[in-house]
Each structure stands twice: as C-alpha cells, then as structure tokens.
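Show me any protein, fold above all:
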Amino acid sequence: MRLLILGGSQFLGRAIAVQACAAGHDVTCAARGLSGPIASGARFVQVDRDVSDGLEPLACEAFDAVVDVSRHPGQVRRAVAALKRPSVHWTFVSTVSVYSDNRTPGQRADTAPLRPPTAPEIEHGSDETYGAAKVACEQAVGENAFICRAGLLVGPEDPTGRFAYWPARLARGGEVLAPGAPDDAVQFIDVRDLARWIVHAAQTGLTGVYDGIGPIRTRGELLTECSAALGASCTFTWVDRAFLEAHDVRRWAGPRSLPLWLPLPDYAGFATRDTTPARDAGLRSRAISETARDTLGWLRASNGPVVGLTIEEERDVLAAWHARSPR
C-alpha cells in the first residue's frame, strides 16, 4: 500500500508512519518538517499547507490511501481538492471535542450531537475553536471516508505531558493526591493502538464515523494498575472537586493541574463514550500496565515533558486536606 500521511512528524502522525513502515507499506510523510523527525523507513516531502499551491510537490504522485491529522479547515479543504479521489482511501483524524454534549454518559459517534462548525471563511483553528474547527474539517472531507474521532491519546512521545504526569508521579511512590473518587470514569487510548487501527482501516477500506478511544476504566483502576506495573508503593488520598477547586488545582492539563481530571457531573459523558462500533471494527487496546511502563521509560530516556502539580504543590494541597479532615 502506498500511504500518504499529511503530517507524520509528531506523536500520532509519527506513530502511524512507524506502524505502516513496520507492516511493509510504502510511506510518504508530507509536512513542513519542523515538528520532529520522520519515522525510519518513511520518505519525507516538504509541503506548506497554508498556501494555495502548497501541495504541488505531491501533484505527480499516486497513493492508495491518505491520512490527514490537521486541525485547520483551510488545510483540509485544500488537501481534499488536490488529493481526494474515489480510488483513494481517505482517513481524517478528528476528535471527541467535536461533541456538544459532555454531560450525558454512553453516547455514540453516530448519534451524538456536534458543535456548530467554524464559519466557512475561517482557515485556522485555535485552542478556543478546536472542536468547532474539527467539525468544519469533517464536513470538508465529506462522505466515503474514515472519520476517526480520537479520544485522549497517551503513551511514549506525547508532547502534551498529560498522561505522563501519572507514571512519573507514581514511580516516586508515597502518598499520592488523587482527584475525585476511585470509581470515576476515565477513557483514553495508547497512541500506538490508535495508529495500528488507522493503518488497518486503510488496508481494509474501512469507512464511516467512529470514536477512536479505549474502554471505559475507573480512575482507581488506572492508578492502581500503573503503580503496580512500575513497582511503586503508593497510597491514594482521594480529594473532592470542591476542595481541589478551592485550592486552585486545575483540571485536565497544564501547570498546577491534576491531568486527566475533569469535574463531574459537567463531564460525565466525556469519559464514558460507547466505543463498541470501533472495537467491532478492529480497534484493540493494550494493558494500562504496558502503557505506563513504556511511557516512563520514554520519559527517562528522553527527558520528555510532564505537566501537572509540582512536588511542592501536591505536598501543600495534601497538607491542607489533612488539616481540614480527620485521618
């Protein structure tokens, strides 16, 4: 299979290239070449997707399948016009951020309501318009394509440092500040598993709209399995939303956050999506323990990014919690 990845130099795009090359496919990565190295075995073609003729270096080439990971509607519209043909399998990697309802548990990709798309004149998405811009991208791709709405991606080479916080923290052992309750739902997927499924979709001609996320797990399960996999001795102190917010512990990602934590019931649907259709179509998820070990190994080997509470910030919040509550 001759596979073109529009991107391919960072995290998911790079993981797709790695998987495709390992499977023996002829892989081309078309990008600016600024985000990172191309996977070994892949060919690099430099393009600029922000200009009208930016894909011209690919004009005389033929591909069996194309994977696009862009978040910018203008880039996607130009790629579709230049490269999408009936004989070419098209994958667009979207996001679960396209959904407008994050409160209702158990939603499915084929029925969940979407955000309104960004206006037609909007070329670039931003952090504020991310979900709406991806909706516009999906509309530009149109039918007869594989639309993969990715959930939280985790694993080695993650540039966000979100999931990495937990293996890094758990490996230190001791008392661990845990947000919410042990039975709160979490949902994510190892980037390598999603990449393998995307390559499988191209090989088999899979089309339709799917949520690319792993099974629903509990936060207690996540932390317990990760700490056991890392051989760490941890105790978990579960702290409720009101206390965390009162002490400026932030949600999801970034400085002073507890990554992967979203307050309930506001986000009760975000981590409980029904991904049965994706699993029926071949998506498989590896054990949490493997992701945790591999992520920690990558962090230690590459000094990869970790975001979240610092050691001092976690210690101060725990001290305040114990001063307020009986042990």
In short: DSSP finds ten helices and 15 strands in the chain. The mean pLDDT is 96. Residues 165-187+216-273+287-324 form one domain.
